[in-house]
């Protein structure tokens, strides 16, 4: 079977991926907000869980997960040079078993990622998606009407993601929300809408904006002015 992204170089030597892979690294505070304000995991109840981050990029979400979860598996279809498995999540053969799948999927493949994740995760799935993902007849017919999320959690404060790098100063129009399919998801489940209160300052930690690649500069955006 062919990789889903036309330009998917499963093992590539370049540091940055092709544009088609939708590489938009996630601010660490936005991942911490999932635990603090959506899963309410202040007591670290996920300590014993296994979580797969299957589109981990350079690991900005994965590093936060490692601080919260006992066993974290990191993979991505592109080789970013971090300690992660190189694997196309949408290939039919599933590489891992896990309790949760948590990621910020490539926008173009978000529905496919969610559908696949729901077949794998034993407990739940949490996906950071653009707010516009909520809308759409196709997604409604194929996904939300059959398997509605248990929670849609909207950030009150803008999460600004830019392609190819983590820019703490970015301020862009695209809004993001967390969608969670908890242990009780299924046909007929009522979706709860919650707000994530402003929490960027509180949840940002020293070192969040230092590149996690050893010795690497934080890369510039792939395209000047391009944004999610
Ligand atoms: C929006 S970025 C998210 C990066 C990371 N999860 C984060 O939050 O910082 C999407 C990622 O999906 C990866 N990706 C795209 N298609 C994929 C596929 N079929 N299987 C696995 N990873 C894929 C890209 O290489 C990119 O790293």
Secondary structure layout plus pairing:
Blueprint: H1 28-38, E1 50-53, H2 60-68, E2 71-76, E3 85-86, E4 100-103, H3 110-120, E5 124-130, H4 137-144, E6 151-155, E7 176-181, E8 192-196, H5 200-203
Parallel strand pairs: 1-2, 1-4, 2-3, 4-5, 6-8
Antiparallel strand pairs: 5-7, 6-7
Helix pairs in contact: 1-2
Bound molecules: S-adenosylmethionine.
The site of S-adenosylmethionine (SAM) has 25 residues, from helix 2.
Provide a descriptive summary of the structure in words.
Strand 4, helix 3 and strand 5 form a beta-alpha-beta unit. With 228 residues, the protein is α/β, with parallel strands linked by helices. The chain has a single domain (25-203), classed as Vaccinia Virus protein VP39 (Rossmann fold, 3-Layer(aba) Sandwich). Helices cover 19% and strands 17% of the residues. An eight-stranded mixed beta sheet has the order 3-2-1-4-5-7-6-8, with helices on both faces. Bound molecules: S-adenosylmethionine (SAM). Residues 4-5, 17, 21-26, 54-57, 60-61, 76-78, 88-90, 103-104, 106, 109 line the site of S-adenosylmethionine (SAM). S-adenosylmethionine (SAM) binds next to helix 2.
Short structural summary:
The protein is of the alpha/beta class. It is built from 5 helices and 8 strands; from the N terminus they run αβαβββαβαβββα.
């Amino acid at each position: 079977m062919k990789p889903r992204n036309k330009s998917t170089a499963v093992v590539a030597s370049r540091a940055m991926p092709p544009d088609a892979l939708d590489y938009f690294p996630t601010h660490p505070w936005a991942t911490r907000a999932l635990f603090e304000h959506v899963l309410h995991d202040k007591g670290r109840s996920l300590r014993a869980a296994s979580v797969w981050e299957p589109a981990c990029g350079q690991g900005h979400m994965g590093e936060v997960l490692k601080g919260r979860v006992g066993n974290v598996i990191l993979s991505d279809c592109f080789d970013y040079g971090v300690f992660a498995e190189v694997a196309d999540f949408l290939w039919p053969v599933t590489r891992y078993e896990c309790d949760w799948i948590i990621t910020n999927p490539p926008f173009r493949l978000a529905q496919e990622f969610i559908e696949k994740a729901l077949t794998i995760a034993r407990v739940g799935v949490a996906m950071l998606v653009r707010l516009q993902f909520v809308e759409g007849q196709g997604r409604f017919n194929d996904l939300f009407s059959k398997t509605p999320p248990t929670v849609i959690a909207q950030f009150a404060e803008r999460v600004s993601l830019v392609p190819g790098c983590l820019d703490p100063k970015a301020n862009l129009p695209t809004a993001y929300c967390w969608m969670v399919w908890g242990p009780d998801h299924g046909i007929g489940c009522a979706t709860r809408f919650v707000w994530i209160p402003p929490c960027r300052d509180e949840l940002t930690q020293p070192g969040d904006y230092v590149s996690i690649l050893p010795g690497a500069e934080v890369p510039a955006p792939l395209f000047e002015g391009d944004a999610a």
